[in-house]
Fold each of these.
Amino acid sequence: MSLISKLKGLVSDPAPEYVFEVSEAGIAWAQPNNGGPQWAPLPAGTLDVSPLGDNVKQPAQFATAVRAIAPAAAGARRRRAALILPDYCARVTVLDFDTFPADHNEQIQLARFRAKRAVPFDIDSAVMACHPQPRHDGSKKLDVVVAVINMEVVSHLEAPFRAAGYQCGFVTLSALAALALHPTAEPNASPSIVAKLSGNVLALSLLDGQSLRMFRCVELQDASEQEATDVLATTFAYAEDELGTRPQVLRLCGVPKESDELRRRWSEELGIPVTGVMSRYGAPGAFNAGLTGYLESLEAS
């Protein structure tokens, strides 16, 4: 079972009628069991993704794009929706605990205290979710995935969907949802790293089996190959130090299929296979990987 199947996002509710993935480039969307992903571009400058403050720079344009996706619901009925947000608008960290309470409120309180130094905004007014994972090495420690998002950020990104008659009962991040995508090769290799590129943002997930052991989200300054390579190198060094072994495979997501030369160079430099991920709709793109991953998780559940 993938992390997205277990981690119930920042807010959760079952059975969405619509799934939306928001990015600076546009809105990827789908109706589960009623066709594949679709795409609605956004005018440049509509969104400016950041963990701080309001990401919506052109509210009217954003609202118009949301209303154009689907006709208004009949009467006052609100349509259930899942909303997948850009990776860089939130913070995800993995914290280790010797013990972790069973009570949800106690979990949030403890995670909030530990994650306080890892976020660049007021964590006391933020939306948070956490998911404990046992380790596979026989240790009694728990690794707890903690996702935190500024309340102002999530409320403004949700606002046009609420105004259009959607109830966003499940909210998560693109890179977490994308972990439900299927590997194109080396399916049992572990540990593994999933590198998801979306515009100039590189999100890296270190997986030990199905457990998330580390998450990094880096805004690349010039989006060059060398800059991305440097980020990968430090991530691999951390993985080897933390797990005592090198990752066995690098899985790329959102990197164009035609980048075969880049894959070859990274495979040679890192000394491991460099593969991809896939959904039943084909290879995910840079701005719909979370959507397709979420649809895969629905299929598997």
Note: Helices lie at 3-6, 59-69, 104-115, 151-163, 174-178, 225-243, 260-270, 289-300.
Amino acid sequence: MAFERKQYAVAIDFVANEYPKAKSDLQKGRKAWIAGQSNIKLLEYNEAESWLQKSVNHGYGPDAIMALARIQKINEKYQAAIESFKKLTDNPALRQEAEREILMCKQAESYKAMTPEYRVERILENSSVADYGPSLYENQFLVFTSERKDATGSDIYKWTGERFSDLYIMQKSGTGEVLKFDSAINTSDNEGTPWFSRDMQVLYFTRCVNSGSGDDYCKLMISRRTDGIWEEPEELPFIKDKINYGQPTLIENDSVLVFSADIEQPGGTRDLYYAVLSPDGSWSAPEKLPATINSIGNEKFPTGDKDTLYFSSDHWPGMGGFDIFKTYLRKDGTWTIPFNLGSPINSGGDDFSFIVDYNAKFGANIKQQGYFSSSRSGSGKDDIFKFYKLDLPKEKTDTLEKLKICF
């Protein structure tokens, strides 16, 4: 019941007590499956792999094998994942998917063997909670999402077992004190994934509130800064009830808002949509980005960079969970085929919220710098990373470009 109500942290505690007492393989396999799936929701991938291996050992079936294989892939155990996927190639219903996953595991191994185009480093080494979704603010700060113990409100979010998330601010170097962003923005609900207009006078972000039915629905919010004070946020006018929206970003001189939503399939997979801001301040109805970007899986965490869009997908060929992809608008208004940014930007875990810092000061052999979020290493917590794009010799970049086509 806790699992069905999305109280994943609670479900894991129940299973830990009930699993040893289960009488049959079927019961043990079912409970291990619930624990595995719950840990996936909490990004605890090492724990998820352990429980799903138990579920497979108890003969819970092909779904358990598929889930285990995917977690092995997320944990970058590509050879183990390949062996697990191979067990499903005799299953007519799962053969095509298993063979596709085997190919992606092999591609991921090839990419990891290449000379890296980026260097990455975690900027908050001692954080024990999830920190993610950074956005540049006033050239010297990052505003981001976190579940820190001083978050607004005293309740525990039963999905995660942590505090409800707020927006926080810190020096973009990662040094100095981490502070809550603004009391007009943070509430006892979940706030996250901020994005600022270029003049830093408008803030878009996500707020997830309980509808009273036990489900949390996420909405896009807007706040304006007047005389240095952030105003009370409002929902964007095109928001509908019982639809989940999230991760707003701006492109095209701040005239187009791109975001993730489950408009076509409420409660299902997420796609990327956009709405246009008219000169009179009104918004167009959301429209879906094309199928060259949206897959049959989930597309989330778009981030804008002029006419370029970065986003994360768990379906397009990648290295594990969500991978970061890049696309940009052509002069004729069409989007280019997205390409995978590769390792080490992408990993077996979830990688997302890629932003470029054009005001960064960097040394020789570095041509770009910025930030992104990742749950790599199976830690169960998202972290914020700084990246440095390296100025590689032309022959190495040519090889990398060819491999991107493979992805």
Note: The CA atoms of residues 25 and 275 lie 51 Å apart.
